[in-house]
Amino acid sequence: MSLKKFSGTGVALITPFTNENTVDFAALDNLIEYVIEGGVDFLVIFGTTGEPVTLTESEKSEILEFIYQHVNGRKPIVVGCGGNNTAETVKAISAIDDTKFDAVLSVSPYYNKPGQRGILEHYKHVAAASKLPVIAYNVPSRTGCNIEVDTAIKIANEIPNIVGLKEASPSVEQFTYIKRAVPKDFLLISGDDSIVVPHMVLGACGAISVTANAAPHLYSSMIRLCLEQNYTEALEIHLKLIEFTDSLFTEGSPAGVKAALAHKGLVKNNLRLPLVPVTAAHEQYIQSLLKQLAL
Fold it and tell me: Does the active-site annotation cover 137?
């Protein structure tokens, strides 16, 4: 299987909700069309941005089938599936339909704060259970523990079914050391929109992005330019986007990007507790940035 399908821009899709707090499938359809028309290369369902921990199992099943049907083979689909109970994670991953989806994105265990040996063993079990290729996901700001460089290198070299790592630690140095030691065909994917161009310069194959929900054309153009090694023009877009990107995280994600998408008329500005919408003042700030970007 070619792994090139996971290069470029992956969008970590939000989950839209109605005013009655149910999944808004009409808005989800609009969003799918918006990001595909915007040039993204693959879709990621149930990343952190999709608020999966607030979804029921029946809702997840409905969303998966809906997205599969509406994407209709136009783009690869990556399914987020992770947790801090290895046995439950293994059970959930083994149930993902490998005839409909293309890969699994599995976040490092959170809250338990496992050591590096525990993280490595967790991923060995996850990879063995998955019928699909697995992309590991390091996001220490959310999980409370970092996949250290040596562990990332072991994951890349010792677990055949793990084909990539979404790296969202804030350390460019860590990214550099990982890139230096992983196999050439291992997918090192940027997971931090604010430092995506540095990641691309260092050899990332692309990004899984929150910003691409609201600015798919600009974001995917920037990544495409990086893949063409046209970093000068890519940097121009990055500098143009950076204030908007940062605004999406100031009061938490996906609250920021949902505010932006609501202003664009694509979704309603609803989240599930314990997340709440951004403040009115910050919403106005996001709107002013959208206007500046002509989005």
Answer: yes
